[in-house]
Write a structure and sequence with these properties.
Low-confidence stretches: 65-77, 263-267, 278-292
Strand content: 25-35%
Mean pLDDT: 86
CATH class of the largest domain: Alpha Beta
Structural class: alpha/beta
Largest sheet: 7 strands, mixed
Number of strands: 16
Radius of gyration: 25 Å
Helix content: 10-25%
CATH topology of the largest domain: Rossmann fold
Bound molecules: S-adenosylmethionine
Length: 320
Amino acid sequence: LDPAGKLSSQRRIAEGDTVVVYERHDAMRAVAVRAGGVLQNRFGVFRHDDWVGRPFGSKVHSSAGGGGGGGKKGGGKAGGFVHLLAPTPELWTLVLSHRTQILYIADISLVVAYLELVPGCVVLESGTGSGSLTTSLARAVAPHGRVHTFDFHEQRATSAREDFERNGLSSLITVNVRDIQGEGFPEEHRGAADAVFLDLPQPWLAIPSVSLMLKQDGVLCSFSPCIEQVQRACDAMRSCFTDIRTFEILLRTYEVRDGSLNSGTANEEAVVGPRPQKRKKFTPSGENSGCTEKTSSVLVRPCSTAKGHTGYLTFARLRV
Ligand code: SAM
């Protein structure tokens, strides 16, 4: 991640960088580039030394003799390839090591937008967890803003700090060990936060402290998986906050394919549009010229693997 916002396509891979090795849309992993390092996967053997100096986004082929025969383009074993991607927050969320439940990009997008984060903002967050959300918060406030994130679990805080360091985010994020439900946020942040985000089991315990930390007009967001937690958090918000709104993001993925309608598919698949394969010819009078017309349709249906409930996001603004 580049806090300076340099386009990843302009950056070249250096020793010590984290790259996201993209095998397929559902197979990616984070790899730290080191001298003499080797990555071995189903597509072959890849030497880190061959990656250094290449721009992020490069396609690299496995080195000769690796992976054990085959030579199939893009698949198989030796002769296969991978792409070396820059670790954007979106990709990082997909490849990070899960030390806790994490927020995914659908929820994260709403959080960043509704917390009204812009470069220069100061954000307080608890708990840090695996740092999935923190990484996107940092990008939103870069280059001069700051995210102060708190978790009461020492090891998780340490691992998150190491991840942020490896990803070049140390200048934007401070990781602290603190029981936010028990002690609230530290006094030094009083009145200084543009936004606060809570992902805690009992967020209502932290809300009085949040109201002291926010600047006038500052925004709070609390994430909870259960509606009972949301109700208690909302009760706690009512004394100092206004504009309280709760959202649930549900992702519905659709399978899209070309096909033609027959009576068996009409109920389960929707036709979103005809796709002409051959342009219709019309006479000047508007009649069909008689040319034979072959059309297919685009059929869509919800995927059976669509992701369901993750949690509820409650936003509220500090009352002035
Ligand atoms: N939002 C994070 C992410 O996207 O990676 C995940 C947060 S995780 C679900 C919840 C975290 O809250 C855990 O790491 C846990 O240790 C921390 N936590 C729970 N109670 C806490 C408390 N009283 N004070 C600080 N952190 C706490």
